[in-house]
Amino acid sequence: MEVAKQGRPINTRTLLDYIEGNIKKKSWLDNKELLQTAISVLKDNQNLNGKM
Fold it and tell me: Which residues of 20-47 are buried (b: 16+ CB within 10 A; e: fewer)?
């Protein structure tokens, strides 16, 4: 997720596209690392850019 590395907010659509693209390449159930990455990105994005 190059966008996150640049410090820019990641919108949900971008993250969904990333996950869906990887699901087609790999078995979702066997790829816990992908799921953990998505969760981490969402948490980091929320912490940096979230509004309460």
Answer: eeeeeeeeeeeeeebeeebeebeeebee
On whether residue 52 sits in a domain, the answer given is no
Mean of the per-residue pLDDT values of the chain = 72
> Whose CA is closest to 14, among 4, 5, 6?
4
Smallest CA-to-CA distance from 14 within 26, 22, 50 is with 22
Please say whether the dihedral angle defined by the alpha carbons of residues 11, 39, 20 and 26, taken in this order, is positive or negative. Answer: positive
pTM (2 decimals)? Answer: 0.46
Query: What DSSP designation does 7 have?
Result: T
Number of domains in the chain: 1
**Which residue range(s) make up the domain with 18?**
2-47
